[in-house]
Model the fold of this input.
Amino acid sequence: MSMHDKILEAAEARLRSGGYGAVSFRDLASDVGVKSASVHYHFPRKEDLGVAVVTAYTEKVFEALGMAMQARTPRDRLAGYIGVFRHALVEEDAICLCAMLGAEARGLPHQVAEAVRVFFQANIDWLDEALANASRKPKSAEIIAALEGAMLLANTMDSIAVFEDVADGLLSRTE
Amino acid sequence: MSMHDKILEAAEARLRSGGYGAVSFRDLASDVGVKSASVHYHFPRKEDLGVAVVTAYTEKVFEALGMAMQARTPRDRLAGYIGVFRHALVEEDAICLCAMLGAEARGLPHQVAEAVRVFFQANIDWLDEALANASRKPKSAEIIAALEGAMLLANTMDSIAVFEDVADGLLSRTE
DNA sequence: GTCTATAATTTGATAGAC
DNA sequence: GTCTATCAAATTATAGAC
Done:
């Protein structure tokens, strides 16, 4: 993997566990085995790094969602959508990057906050399309809010039970 | 108001907009019109301040919830509960303190993270009691997750519509 | 691309006068 | 309780050698 991508990966991990203020160039440099000046070579300002991480994260999520869109029924597509979030929470043991940055939105550089908005709008659009044929369903923004909130609570209480309850509730209201 | 409480108030506002890393003793001192050494007099370490803010916030929320518990039906009690969160979002123009700190939980001093856990557990207990007689209702943790997620999304997208949609959905599933 | 070196600022925290 | 003064460390960021 390129140094550019290694830095993005390390920055995503630190952002998702501690937030924007908890990421420093020196820590990232140490994570990937270089000096902080080298991190600045790849991402001149912290804001540049923030935007790049959110953009890369968005692309990664929507690549995974591409397969989920292929499912035959609206409910199966929603199940695939939920699965992407579950994987982020359980396998990567962290909340969604944009749950963290969305919470901090008012205190972020404008371009970073804007990238987070783009992520959520793209999620709304994806769900609108995936569930277009459903006869019964929550609004797209409701689904996203429920899952992001579930991640947040599961993260704090260190229990994924609430996530599964929310997932079951969403699926039972969709057909 | 005492200086102690003024500092708590300023710290809550800064925590809710930017997170733990966005709060500094100097900024708080400037907010309340003293020097940073005076803030340290009231709260020796940042961790002490963090715990105190979460504790005071919890008491404030549960004082408001006291009245909501008096309502006659489970649905009315849930409506009162939702109203406390709506007030925080709309009138104070910020997400719930514990949505922010819950997101950052993994990167917080342990005692601060523990205080956030206490807040959420108390919310679960409150809802369990308030909705004990309901014939049909979401699980308590589902309700909290839905509302916290709705605040997060409303905060990011700068629109309270999603919060109202989530609130309506919760009330319609409760009786 | 990565390094050393460093600038300029901010941060959490303390000592001691008043 | 609040202040001045200060410290040690950390932070974002840049200049210039290799």
